[in-house]
Amino acid sequence: MSNKRLFRAGVSNLRGRVKEGYERHRNRCCCCCRADRSEPYCALRESLAGHPDLLYAGYSQDALKEYAEAALVYAFLHGDPPPDAASLGVDAAAYLNGLAEAASELRRAILDSMRAGATAHGAALLAIMDDIYSLLITIDYPEAVTGGLRRTTDALRAVLERTRGDVTAAIRQDHLIAALEAFEQRLDRLQATTLARNAPLEQSDGG
Q1: Residue numbers of the domain that contains 157
Q2: What is the Cα–Cα distance from 5 to 177, expressed in whole angstroms?
Q3: How far apart are CA 185 and CA 110, in angstroms?
Q4: Residue 154 domain-assigned?
Q5: Whose CB has fewer CB within 10 Å in the chain, the N or C terminal residue?
Q6: Interval 129-152: pLDDT, tens
């Protein structure tokens, strides 16, 4: 099989088997420390090892970035330690861009949490987004080195600010609901106390 066909097959398998590959990754220290030719991302890197013009081309790095993004999102949502670039077998630029896009993807989970009434879980995911953004803005290298990380980080900032506003509104709404419920309980207790005090008077008037 030619290198181009092998490359296309590797990218196709990579996109279709991201979750399967990450499940296997969770139980090992490094994707390359044990030979497993069924790993699509390892197969992609190995097949293109002698062709850096293809390995570091935009389409192949995008595929590795997508794998890193999926692995990071999976880890964040399941409470696992996030894998690093070495354990995923991707380069730093692909990993960092995948990290930025993974943080943006957390917005969906945050909105789902708030719809389900789990505002605290949404706030915890927002803290992860904030930490990632705070890390990425400290990386100041030329765009040719980082693979357009600055643009991806700017996009993350916009998503982060919108999400922060949504979470803040949800938290304030929860506080308002709690205050109204507490006020309603106080009214119920006051009404019960008033009725208990007035009951003997009504009985004596009736007598």
Answers
A1: 103-198
A2: 59
A3: 31
A4: yes
A5: C
A6: 999 999 999 988 888 788 888 999
